[in-house]
Structure formats: C-alpha cells, structure tokens
Amino acid sequence: MVLCPVIRKLLHKRVVLASASPRRQEILRQAGLRFEVVPSRFKEMLPKALFPSPPAYAVETAKQKALEVARRMHQKDLRAPDVVIGADTIVAVGGLILEKPVDKQDAYSMLSRLSGKEHSVFTGVAIVHCCSRDGRLDTDVSEFYEETRVRFSELSEDLLWEYIDSGEPMDKAGGYGIQALGGMLVEQVHGDFLNVVGFPLNRFCKKLAELYYPSGREDPRPAQSHQGRGGRDEDGGERTQAAGPEEAVSSRTGHSPPPFPTGLLELVDSFKASKALFTACKLKVFDLLKDGAPLKAVDVAGKLGASACGTGRLLDACVALGFLQKTDRGYSNTETANLHLTSDGAYSLRGLVLHHSDHPWDLSARPESAGRDGVDPHDGALGERTGPPCQASCAHSEETRLGLLRAMHSLAKLTARHVATAFDLSRFGSACDLGGCTGALAYVLAREYPRLRVTVFDLPEVLQHVAGFQPDGPRTEQVSFLPGDFFEDSLPEADLYVVSRILRDWPDGKVHELLSRVARACKPGGGLLLVDVAAGPEAEAEAEGLRRRAGGERSAAVYAHLLRRLGFADVRAAAPSATPTLHRACARPASPRAHPAGLFPPVSLIRVGQTASPREELGTAGSCKCGAP
Ligand SMILES: O=c1[nH]cc([C@@H]2O[C@H](COP(=O)(O)OP(=O)(O)OP(=O)(O)O)[C@@H](O)[C@H]2O)c(=O)[nH]1
C-alpha cells in the first residue's frame, strides 16, 4: 500500500536505490516505493577533517554514492534512471565520526565509547534526478540529513563481547543494530527511529513533497510554478527541477490538464507484478535461492535452463517487488520469499500463487458474463452455478483439485491462529469443522485447545487428498476426518461447529439452509464459530440483488440478524487483532467490492454464536428456522 502521495508519484519513474543495505531496501519497500537496487561502489573515504560537521560528511558521502551509480548506469546504457537515491548513516560522539567497524576490536572500541552516554546518529540522503541528453548525463541533486539522539546504558565487558560475538555489529554504523539485538543496549531514543536503522523515511517523504509540490499542495495536479534547475533548498542542497512531464505541458500551454490518473495506470500495469510473481514461483526461483549463497542471474538461468537476459529481467522484477535482494554477490531471497514463496516455507503461499496463475479470474476470460444476472466469478461459463471452488473443482482434473486444495490450505494455515484465538473456545470439548478441507484450521484449534477433539467434515473427494497435508507432531491425534456433505448428510455431533470461508460461496437460500442445519444440530450451550470475509455496509447494499442469486461477502449485520433468527444467543463479532499481512503486492484494495471473489480473502470477520442453554430456547431455534424467509 502506498500511503504517501509523493511516493505514489515515483511509481511511474525508474527509481534506483544506490545502497546494499538490506535495512534501507526494506524501509523503502514497506513504504510502497518501487525501485531497483544498484549498490554504490563509491568508497566511503572522504577526508572527515575537511567537513565542518559530521552531518555534512554523511550528506556528501550519500551524494557521492548516488552519483557514482547514476554515472555508471548512464555509461552502461547511455540511459540513466530517473531518480537515484543514496544514503549514508554515521554515529557521532565526542567530535568523532564512527562508521561500520572494520573488525571485532574496532567494534569493541566503538561500543565502549558509546557505553553510558548519548550520541547522535546522522543519516545523509541524496535524491538525484537524472536526465540523459545527447549522450550526456545531467543531474540535479537534492540532499538533506536527519539527526536522532540515542542514549546507551552502561555496558559490561561481558555484554559487549557477547554482542560483538553475535556478529551483528559488523555491517552497522557505530557497531550496533538498534532494530535487533542492539536494541538491548539502548536506554533512550530522541527522534526518528528509522533514521538510526538507516533511512529517515518521514523526512524523505517531506523532502519529496517539497520537491514535487513546491507550493505546499499535496495535489496530484502539477504545480503552476516551480524552481528552476540548480536552486538551493533550505538545507543548502542543490534543488532539482522536480516537475514531471505533466507539469511541463501545463506551464507551456497555460491550461491545467486533468488530474494524472495514477491509480488507473497502476491498475493497468499491476498484472505485470502478479505475472512476475507467478513466473518466479512456477520456475521455483525462490526454492533455488533458499539457504544457499547468492547467485548471479546467469547462474540462476543455467539452473533453470532459461535465457540469461530474460532471467535477469525476472530477477530484477522480483527485487523491485521485494521478494529478492540484490548485492554485488548476486540475488538472494528476502524473508518474505523464504517464508511465503518457497515450497516448504513455514507459511508457504506457493500453492495459492500457482492456483491463481493457472486459473485466472473468470471475469477477465468471459467479460460477457461479468455482472450480468448476478453471475458470480465462480460460476460456469454460462452463469450456471457449479458451487464453491472446492466443489466446482470436482468437475475438473485431479491435478486442478489438488492445486486448489494447496491454495486453500496455504491460506487457511496463514490465518488459522488468528481464527482459533479470536475467542476463548476452551469450554468446548468437541468441534466439527464443516468443509474443513485439509484440516489446516482443525490442527491449529487442537494445538490452541489441548482438550478439544476436532472432526473435519468434508466431501469424500476432498478428503481422499488430505494425507499429503498432515502436520507432524503432537495433537494430531485430536483431529479426525469424516466424509460427508453438509447439505445432505447428518452433521456429526459436536459442542462447537465451525463454518469457515464457506458461506460467501453460496447464495442466501443455501446459507440459510446450512445455518439452519447447524442450529438444529447444536446442543444446548453449543456454539458456532463463523469465519468469513465481511463486506462493508455500502458494498452490502449494492451487492444485495446479486447475492440473492449468487454468493458474495455479507456484512456483519446480515450474519448477526440471521443467526439470531435461528436461535443463536450471545452473537459476537471480532476482527482479528492483527489481520495477517501478505506482501504489499497482495494488499487488499480499499473497497471490498473491488477485490475479485476468492483472490485474497483475509479473515476480516469472525463471530461466534451460542445456542441459548435452556431447552425451550433451543426449540425456539427450531421454530425460527421454519418461519425464516
Ligand atoms: O541501528 C542501526 N544502525 C545502523 C544500521 C546499518 O548500518 C549501515 C550504515 O552503513 P552505510 O550508511 O555506509 O550503508 P551500507 O550498509 O554500507 O550500504 P550502502 O551500500 O548504502 O553504502 C546501514 O546498512 C544501516 O542500515 C543498522 O542496521 N542499524
């Protein structure tokens, strides 16, 4: 997600980060900036004594790092990127400038100098706008620095050496990493924390705003006047001519063009990001780079049997998307890739990625059916409902069905803990997960509630594949699988029924039928844990007509109303405390309607209902069911 409008402005420029620092890459990536990483070869050896102050040294080093990359890229292709960003972080204490320690002894002398005292961390940043004209490179540099004051506790010799032996100090300014183990040394921080980590994001956004909206308007339309090239900014840096192409048109013709349709262009372009991800997953790029040393593009190409040039482009795209990092030694996985994109990552979403790669959303394939007569994307080509994806896939090949199971499994695994702990379910002795598929949620329920026995109730054709998805370890004996159809067969007895990510695939009539069956099966004091993506009230109103015939997201209010009518008391809703964050490339669009059904359904609503204990009230549930619409 791109919160900062100025960062959004850079999305259509070719931006290069001239830094090998993984922390800088992560900070800017998290902010939504898209960039390539080309580490600078500038040697950080400017004579410190020539600079009036430590920050002046950091700013000049940052500038030289960025300019070296701009020049090198221009020389190579005779085309420089639009923007190159360079940064340099230093620690200043008692008039001394500390950079990265060269060895353990150096780390020791730095850290003992910082012990029990306050020091300043300065990060100098240079934003270089480039323009290649007639084979010449023009650059405009804008620069600034940020200061953060950090106080260390008194550090014992033992602690110092233990920290140094951890290896953490070696690639960090001042010999410590505040974001990791080094955080234990720190007593107080005054100022921007990210500045200490290596990049002052807040100040960077402000600087971009100054450059791109000199009149102070955070308006995507071009500024009417801007400073010319070579002006000086408030920090004494050279100011770039910040206006983009649209600004130039505006000042020449004297009329304002319409707001630049950034969001629309992003959408037009966004399939490329998914395509790069799909391709890299299919080729097992992330499996190849897991755990091993970084590999150059040509080595990856050799192992994949692909062309070096195409592989290089794919790898660079993955760097820009935040799945790979690139240094002089080659490409390696980011943490996100190791966790989510390798086949055996702890929270692998590779199955989900491959499923979407192989089954693009039907609306794009059959536009004539889109939106007509309430046709749902899960429906068949002519709009006939084939049921929820898992059942629909029964009509398809084993391979398709397995792919879908993998996709559902990976997503369920990612969200299972949030679901299992959203309410205290410890009073229930048995649970039945209706349509529980591979048992991903069932196993986590069993782990969270050691007393709970969980039955996964699903179609026989689904259950025949579950053996490949079973976890090792304790608690597995708490989970059992029972074949059945929750619309046709009697529901297994249980204290708690779980209906997770099922209802959105069904029209109202079927939802009512299923919940009625659950209400009937519920024992006095029994419960229902309902998990689904919730629509906001607006989307709910608009979706009303469509949903009656198809499935779709329903609002919290609709479910609550229905559950109460069915005799459930104590209906409560909860959003998970931390909605699991997929990578920003997978972020959910702001409007629930805007996101195609089944693509990225994070759990956004969890509710538990409990049938009222007295028997008469349970009877009421039965009669409610009969009289319900
Ligand atoms: O608390 C923390 N303090 C500093 C860091 C990291 O330290 C380095 C600072 O070094 P420098 O600015 O020279 O940057 P390099 O890593 O050499 O990369 P360049 O290619 O940009 O020169 C920086 O990585 C900070 O992130 C830290 O992690 N924690």
From TrEMBL:
<protein>
    <submittedName>
        <fullName>Acetylserotonin O-methyltransferase like</fullName>
    </submittedName>
</protein>
<dbReference type="InterPro" id="IPR036390">
    <property type="entry name" value="WH_DNA-bd_sf"/>
</dbReference>
<dbReference type="InterPro" id="IPR029001">
    <property type="entry name" value="ITPase-like_fam"/>
</dbReference>
<dbReference type="InterPro" id="IPR036388">
    <property type="entry name" value="WH-like_DNA-bd_sf"/>
</dbReference>
<dbReference type="GO" id="GO:0047429">
    <property type="term" value="F:nucleoside triphosphate diphosphatase activity"/>
</dbReference>
<feature type="domain" description="O-methyltransferase C-terminal">
    <location>
        <begin position="394"/>
        <end position="568"/>
    </location>
</feature>
<dbReference type="Pfam" id="PF08100">
    <property type="entry name" value="Dimerisation"/>
</dbReference>
<dbReference type="InterPro" id="IPR016461">
    <property type="entry name" value="COMT-like"/>
</dbReference>
<dbReference type="GO" id="GO:0008171">
    <property type="term" value="F:O-methyltransferase activity"/>
</dbReference>
<dbReference type="GO" id="GO:0032259">
    <property type="term" value="P:methylation"/>
</dbReference>
<dbReference type="GO" id="GO:0005829">
    <property type="term" value="C:cytosol"/>
</dbReference>
<dbReference type="InterPro" id="IPR001077">
    <property type="entry name" value="COMT_C"/>
</dbReference>
<keyword id="KW-0378">Hydrolase</keyword>
<feature type="region of interest" description="Disordered">
    <location>
        <begin position="216"/>
        <end position="258"/>
    </location>
</feature>
<feature type="region of interest" description="Disordered">
    <location>
        <begin position="365"/>
        <end position="390"/>
    </location>
</feature>
<dbReference type="InterPro" id="IPR003697">
    <property type="entry name" value="Maf-like"/>
</dbReference>
<keyword id="KW-0808">Transferase</keyword>
<keyword id="KW-0489">Methyltransferase</keyword>
<dbReference type="Pfam" id="PF02545">
    <property type="entry name" value="Maf"/>
</dbReference>
<keyword id="KW-0949">S-adenosyl-L-methionine</keyword>
<dbReference type="Pfam" id="PF00891">
    <property type="entry name" value="Methyltransf_2"/>
</dbReference>
<dbReference type="InterPro" id="IPR012967">
    <property type="entry name" value="COMT_dimerisation"/>
</dbReference>
<dbReference type="InterPro" id="IPR029063">
    <property type="entry name" value="SAM-dependent_MTases_sf"/>
</dbReference>
<feature type="compositionally biased region" description="Basic and acidic residues">
    <location>
        <begin position="369"/>
        <end position="382"/>
    </location>
</feature>
<feature type="domain" description="O-methyltransferase dimerisation">
    <location>
        <begin position="265"/>
        <end position="343"/>
    </location>
</feature>
<dbReference type="GO" id="GO:0046983">
    <property type="term" value="F:protein dimerization activity"/>
</dbReference>
